[in-house]
Design goal:
The chain has about 210 residues and is α/β, with parallel strands linked by helices. The protein folds into two domains: about 140 residues, 3-Layer(aba) Sandwich (Rossmann fold); about 55 residues, PRTase-like (Ybab, Chain: A), CATH 3.30.1310.20. The strands form two sheets. It has a five-stranded parallel sheet with strand order 2-1-6-7-8, with helices on both faces. A three-stranded antiparallel sheet has the order 3-4-5, with helices on both faces. Helix 2 runs parallel beside helix 6. The relative contact order is 0.20.
Length: about 210
C-alpha cells in the first residue's frame, strides 16, 4: 500500500536510479500519471513531459477499457473487446472520435505550457500511477516507438503481472513495484488516491519548465 502518488513515485525512483540512462525524459499519462512523472523527473534530474493516449470505454461500463487510442489516431483493441455487449463497429468509431476530440483538447492545454519533447535517441521513461488492462500504456508505446528513442522504459508503481507481460515486447525494460495476482482497481493500493485535475497537471508541467530555464 502506498501513501499517495508521491510516495509511490519516490520508491519507483530509487529503482530507476540504478539504470544507466541517456538524456532521460519522463512522460506521464494524464492525469494521475503526470504526478508520478513529475516526481520521477525531479529525482532523476530528467525532463518532464506528457504522452497523450486515451482508453476506449466499454458501453454501459465506462471504467472498463476495451482498448485505447494514441495521439496518432491509431486504435488498439483488447482481445476481448468485441465480446463486450454493445461493442459494434459504429460504437468503436464513435468512441474513437470522442477520444480524439479529448486528446486534441488536452494537446492544446498542455502544449500551451510546454512543447513536446524530442525523444529521438533518448532514454524515455513512460509512467502512470498504475496500470489495469494496460491499453492506454500500449497505445503510448506504439506512438513513441515510431519516434526512434534510444530505449523505452515502462515504470509504474503497480500492475497485474499478466498486463506487464504485454509490454515487454514493446519496450526495453519494465520496472514495477507491486505485481499483485488479485487486482481490482489501482486505487486499492493507495491510502490517498484523489482525482488529479487538468489544472494540477498543467501546474506540474509549468513548474518543470521554470526549473529547466533556471
Amino acid at each position: 500500500m502506498f501513501k499517495n502518488r508521491e510516495d509511490a513515485a519516490l520508491q519507483l525512483a530509487k529503482r530507476l536510479k540504478a539504470l544507466k540512462l541517456k538524456d532521460a525524459v519522463v512522460l506521464g499519462i494524464p492525469r494521475g500519471g503526470v504526478v508520478t512523472a513529475a516526481v520521477l523527473a525531479r529525482e532523476l534530474g530528467a525532463e518532464l513531459d506528457v504522452v497523450l493516449s486515451r482508453k476506449l470505454r466499454a458501453p454501459y461500463q465506462p471504467e472498463l477499457a476495451i482498448g485505447a487510442i494514441g495521439e496518432d489516431g491509431e486504435v488498439y483493441l483488447n482481445a476481448f473487446a468485441r465480446e463486450v455487449q454493445g461493442v459494434t463497429e459504429t460504437y468503436i468509431r464513435e468512441e474513437r472520435d470522442h477520444q480524439i476530440t479529448e486528446i486534441a483538447r488536452r494537446r492544446k492545454l498542455f502544449r500551451a505550457v510546454k512543447p513536446p519533447a524530442d525523444v529521438t535517441e533518448r532514454s524515455v521513461i513512460v509512467t502512470d500511477d498504475g496500470i489495469a488492462t494496460g491499453s492506454t500504456m500500449l497505445a503510448a508505446l506504439h506512438v513513441l516507438s515510431a519516434q526512434k528513442p534510444h530505449e523505452i522504459i515502462v515504470a509504474v508503481p503497480v500492475a497485474p503481472p499478466e498486463t506487464l507481460e504485454r509490454f515487454r515486447p514493446q519496450c526495453s525494460h519494465v520496472e514495477c513495484l507491486l505485481t499483485p495476482s488479485h487486482f481490482g482497481a489501482i486505487s486499492q493500493f493507495y491510502a490517498d488516491f484523489q482525482q488529479v485535475e487538468d489544472e494540477e497537471a498543467v501546474r506540474l508541467l509549468r513548474g518543470s519548465r521554470v526549473k529547466e530555464r533556471s
